[in-house]
Design a protein that fits this description.
Number of helices: 8
CATH topology of the largest domain: Ribulose 1,5 Bisphosphate Carboxylase/Oxygenase
Radius of gyration: 19 Å
InterPro entries: Ribosom_uL1_bac-type, Ribosomal_uL1, Ribosomal_uL1-like, Ribosomal_uL1/biogenesis, Ribosomal_uL1_3-a/b-sand, Ribosomal_uL1_CS
Strand order of the largest sheet: 7-1-8-9
Protein name: Large ribosomal subunit protein uL1
CATH superfamily of the largest domain: Ribosomal protein L1/L10, rRNA-binding domain
GO molecular function, one term: rRNA binding
Largest sheet: 4 strands, antiparallel
Strand content: 15-25%
Distance between the termini: 40 Å
Shape: globular
Number of strands: 9
Keywords: Repressor, Ribonucleoprotein, Ribosomal protein, RNA-binding, rRNA-binding, Translation regulation, tRNA-binding
CATH architecture of the largest domain: 2-Layer Sandwich
Family: Belongs to the universal ribosomal protein uL1 family.
CATH class of the largest domain: Alpha Beta
Number of domains: 2
Length: about 230
Protein backbone atom coordinates (compact mmCIF):
# COMPACT_ATOMS: atom_id res chain seq x y z
CA UNK A 1 0.00 0.00 0.00
CA UNK A 2 1.40 3.42 -0.91
CA UNK A 3 2.31 5.69 2.00
CA UNK A 4 -0.34 8.25 0.97
CA UNK A 5 -3.11 5.64 0.93
CA UNK A 6 -1.94 4.16 4.21
CA UNK A 7 -1.92 7.56 5.91
CA UNK A 8 -5.36 8.42 4.53
CA UNK A 9 -6.69 5.13 5.87
CA UNK A 10 -5.07 5.77 9.25
CA UNK A 11 -6.76 9.19 9.38
CA UNK A 12 -10.19 7.56 9.17
CA UNK A 13 -12.00 8.07 12.45
CA UNK A 14 -9.73 10.93 13.56
CA UNK A 15 -11.50 14.28 13.76
CA UNK A 16 -8.77 16.73 12.73
CA UNK A 17 -10.43 19.59 14.64
CA UNK A 18 -11.40 17.77 17.84
CA UNK A 19 -9.31 17.84 21.02
CA UNK A 20 -9.18 14.38 22.62
CA UNK A 21 -8.33 13.49 26.23
CA UNK A 22 -4.74 12.23 26.38
CA UNK A 23 -5.65 8.58 27.07
CA UNK A 24 -8.09 8.51 24.13
CA UNK A 25 -5.55 10.15 21.82
CA UNK A 26 -2.88 7.60 22.76
CA UNK A 27 -5.30 4.74 22.12
CA UNK A 28 -6.10 6.12 18.65
CA UNK A 29 -2.43 6.60 17.79
CA UNK A 30 -1.53 3.07 18.91
CA UNK A 31 -4.39 1.57 16.89
CA UNK A 32 -3.07 3.31 13.76
CA UNK A 33 0.61 2.40 14.21
CA UNK A 34 0.63 -0.34 11.58
CA UNK A 35 4.19 -0.11 10.20
CA UNK A 36 6.40 -3.20 10.06
CA UNK A 37 8.63 -1.75 12.78
CA UNK A 38 7.95 -0.57 16.32
CA UNK A 39 7.02 3.04 15.66
CA UNK A 40 8.11 5.84 17.98
CA UNK A 41 5.32 7.73 19.71
CA UNK A 42 5.97 11.45 19.56
CA UNK A 43 4.42 14.45 21.23
CA UNK A 44 4.45 18.02 19.89
CA UNK A 45 3.69 20.90 22.25
CA UNK A 46 3.11 24.47 21.09
CA UNK A 47 4.29 26.83 23.81
CA UNK A 48 3.43 30.46 24.40
CA UNK A 49 7.05 31.58 24.08
CA UNK A 50 9.22 33.31 21.50
CA UNK A 51 12.54 31.41 21.65
CA UNK A 52 14.25 34.19 19.67
CA UNK A 53 14.40 35.97 23.04
CA UNK A 54 16.95 34.48 25.42
CA UNK A 55 14.60 34.87 28.40
CA UNK A 56 11.95 32.72 26.68
CA UNK A 57 14.08 29.69 25.80
CA UNK A 58 12.72 26.40 27.14
CA UNK A 59 15.07 23.46 27.44
CA UNK A 60 15.88 20.72 29.87
CA UNK A 61 16.09 17.01 30.43
CA UNK A 62 13.61 14.58 31.97
CA UNK A 63 13.90 10.90 32.84
CA UNK A 64 10.78 9.16 31.57
CA UNK A 65 9.39 6.68 34.13
CA UNK A 66 9.04 3.94 31.53
CA UNK A 67 12.07 4.74 29.37
CA UNK A 68 12.00 5.57 25.68
CA UNK A 69 12.26 2.10 24.20
CA UNK A 70 15.34 3.30 22.37
CA UNK A 71 18.93 2.40 23.18
CA UNK A 72 21.06 5.52 23.00
CA UNK A 73 24.73 5.47 22.12
CA UNK A 74 26.49 7.70 24.63
CA UNK A 75 29.77 9.50 23.98
CA UNK A 76 31.83 10.98 26.82
CA UNK A 77 34.69 13.46 26.65
CA UNK A 78 36.81 12.77 29.73
CA UNK A 79 40.32 11.90 30.88
CA UNK A 80 41.87 9.60 33.47
CA UNK A 81 39.65 8.39 36.28
CA UNK A 82 36.57 10.08 34.81
CA UNK A 83 37.13 8.28 31.50
CA UNK A 84 37.34 4.98 33.39
CA UNK A 85 34.17 5.90 35.28
CA UNK A 86 32.36 6.60 32.00
CA UNK A 87 33.36 3.22 30.56
CA UNK A 88 32.27 1.43 33.73
CA UNK A 89 28.89 3.22 33.56
CA UNK A 90 28.30 1.89 30.04
CA UNK A 91 29.39 4.74 27.75
CA UNK A 92 29.81 3.60 24.15
CA UNK A 93 32.57 6.00 23.16
CA UNK A 94 35.06 7.65 25.54
CA UNK A 95 38.01 9.87 24.73
CA UNK A 96 39.70 13.26 24.86
CA UNK A 97 41.84 14.74 22.06
CA UNK A 98 41.49 11.51 20.10
CA UNK A 99 37.68 11.71 20.22
CA UNK A 100 37.72 15.41 19.28
CA UNK A 101 39.81 14.57 16.21
CA UNK A 102 37.48 11.73 15.28
CA UNK A 103 34.42 13.99 15.45
CA UNK A 104 36.19 16.74 13.50
CA UNK A 105 36.80 14.17 10.76
CA UNK A 106 33.07 13.47 10.57
CA UNK A 107 32.79 10.28 12.64
CA UNK A 108 30.04 10.67 15.23
CA UNK A 109 29.24 7.38 16.95
CA UNK A 110 26.91 8.65 19.66
CA UNK A 111 23.36 9.99 20.11
CA UNK A 112 24.02 11.80 23.40
CA UNK A 113 27.20 13.65 24.32
CA UNK A 114 28.53 14.21 27.84
CA UNK A 115 31.67 16.06 28.94
CA UNK A 116 33.47 16.84 32.17
CA UNK A 117 33.89 20.61 32.72
CA UNK A 118 37.66 20.51 32.14
CA UNK A 119 37.07 19.10 28.64
CA UNK A 120 34.86 21.97 27.44
CA UNK A 121 37.69 24.14 26.02
CA UNK A 122 38.44 21.18 23.71
CA UNK A 123 34.82 20.24 23.04
CA UNK A 124 34.04 23.89 22.30
CA UNK A 125 35.95 23.51 19.04
CA UNK A 126 33.28 21.08 17.89
CA UNK A 127 30.42 23.58 18.15
CA UNK A 128 29.88 23.77 14.39
CA UNK A 129 29.73 19.97 14.17
CA UNK A 130 27.79 19.07 17.31
CA UNK A 131 25.62 22.19 17.64
CA UNK A 132 23.43 21.70 14.54
CA UNK A 133 22.86 18.08 15.58
CA UNK A 134 21.71 19.07 19.07
CA UNK A 135 24.64 17.17 20.59
CA UNK A 136 26.65 19.97 22.21
CA UNK A 137 27.11 19.30 25.94
CA UNK A 138 25.41 21.87 28.16
CA UNK A 139 25.51 22.27 31.95
CA UNK A 140 21.85 23.38 31.98
CA UNK A 141 20.71 19.93 30.90
CA UNK A 142 23.27 17.97 32.90
CA UNK A 143 25.56 16.94 30.06
CA UNK A 144 28.52 18.98 31.35
CA UNK A 145 29.11 17.39 34.72
CA UNK A 146 31.55 15.65 37.02
CA UNK A 147 28.83 13.09 37.78
CA UNK A 148 29.73 11.04 34.71
CA UNK A 149 28.17 7.86 36.08
CA UNK A 150 24.81 9.53 36.74
CA UNK A 151 24.76 11.24 33.35
CA UNK A 152 25.61 8.08 31.41
CA UNK A 153 23.12 5.93 33.34
CA UNK A 154 20.45 8.60 32.91
CA UNK A 155 20.98 8.71 29.15
CA UNK A 156 20.91 4.93 28.95
CA UNK A 157 17.91 4.67 31.27
CA UNK A 158 15.46 6.85 29.38
CA UNK A 159 16.33 10.51 29.91
CA UNK A 160 15.07 12.78 27.14
CA UNK A 161 16.39 16.21 26.25
CA UNK A 162 13.77 18.74 25.19
CA UNK A 163 14.19 22.12 23.54
CA UNK A 164 11.71 24.53 22.02
CA UNK A 165 12.34 25.32 18.35
CA UNK A 166 12.00 28.64 16.49
CA UNK A 167 8.24 28.43 16.00
CA UNK A 168 7.65 27.81 19.70
CA UNK A 169 7.15 24.06 19.17
CA UNK A 170 8.73 21.41 21.38
CA UNK A 171 8.87 17.83 20.09
CA UNK A 172 10.02 14.66 21.80
CA UNK A 173 9.85 10.90 21.45
CA UNK A 174 8.11 9.44 24.50
CA UNK A 175 8.12 5.69 23.85
CA UNK A 176 7.21 3.04 21.33
CA UNK A 177 3.91 1.85 19.87
CA UNK A 178 4.49 -1.46 21.69
CA UNK A 179 4.27 0.34 25.07
CA UNK A 180 0.98 0.06 26.94
CA UNK A 181 -1.34 3.06 26.88
CA UNK A 182 -0.75 3.63 30.61
CA UNK A 183 3.03 3.74 30.18
CA UNK A 184 2.80 6.23 27.32
CA UNK A 185 0.41 8.42 29.32
CA UNK A 186 2.83 8.34 32.30
CA UNK A 187 5.77 9.29 30.07
CA UNK A 188 3.92 12.19 28.45
CA UNK A 189 2.78 13.52 31.82
CA UNK A 190 6.37 13.35 33.10
CA UNK A 191 7.54 15.32 30.07
CA UNK A 192 4.73 17.86 30.45
CA UNK A 193 5.57 18.31 34.14
CA UNK A 194 9.23 19.00 33.30
CA UNK A 195 8.25 21.43 30.53
CA UNK A 196 5.87 23.23 32.92
CA UNK A 197 8.63 23.58 35.53
CA UNK A 198 10.91 25.01 32.82
CA UNK A 199 8.45 27.82 32.06
CA UNK A 200 10.51 30.98 31.57
CA UNK A 201 9.67 34.19 33.41
CA UNK A 202 9.35 35.96 30.04
CA UNK A 203 6.40 33.79 28.97
CA UNK A 204 3.09 35.65 29.05
CA UNK A 205 -0.43 34.31 28.60
CA UNK A 206 -1.21 30.63 28.07
CA UNK A 207 2.00 28.60 28.28
CA UNK A 208 0.93 25.19 26.92
CA UNK A 209 -1.26 26.16 23.97
CA UNK A 210 -1.62 23.11 21.70
CA UNK A 211 -0.66 19.46 21.98
CA UNK A 212 -0.66 16.61 19.47
CA UNK A 213 0.53 13.00 19.58
CA UNK A 214 1.47 10.80 16.65
CA UNK A 215 3.45 7.73 15.67
CA UNK A 216 6.34 7.72 13.19
CA UNK A 217 4.13 6.83 10.22
CA UNK A 218 0.71 7.78 11.57
CA UNK A 219 -1.49 10.88 11.66
CA UNK A 220 -1.39 13.46 14.43
CA UNK A 221 -4.18 13.45 17.01
CA UNK A 222 -4.91 16.69 18.85
CA UNK A 223 -5.00 16.53 22.64
CA UNK A 224 -6.79 18.60 25.27
CA UNK A 225 -3.81 20.47 26.80
CA UNK A 226 -5.19 20.20 30.34
CA UNK A 227 -5.14 16.39 30.21
CA UNK A 228 -1.35 16.13 29.87
CA UNK A 229 -0.74 17.72 33.25
CA UNK A 230 -1.01 16.15 36.67
Amino acid sequence: MAIGKRLNKAREGVDREKLYPLADAIKMVKERAKAKFDETIEVAINLGVDPRHADQMVRGVVTLPNGTGRTLRVGVFARGAKADEAKAAGADVVGAEDLVEKVQNGTIEFDRCIATPDMMPLVGRLGKVLGPRGLMPNPKIGTVTMDVTGAVKGAKGGSVEFRVEKAGILQAGVGKASFSEDKLVENIKALADAVSKAKPAGSKGTYIQRVAVSSTMGPGVKVEPGTILG
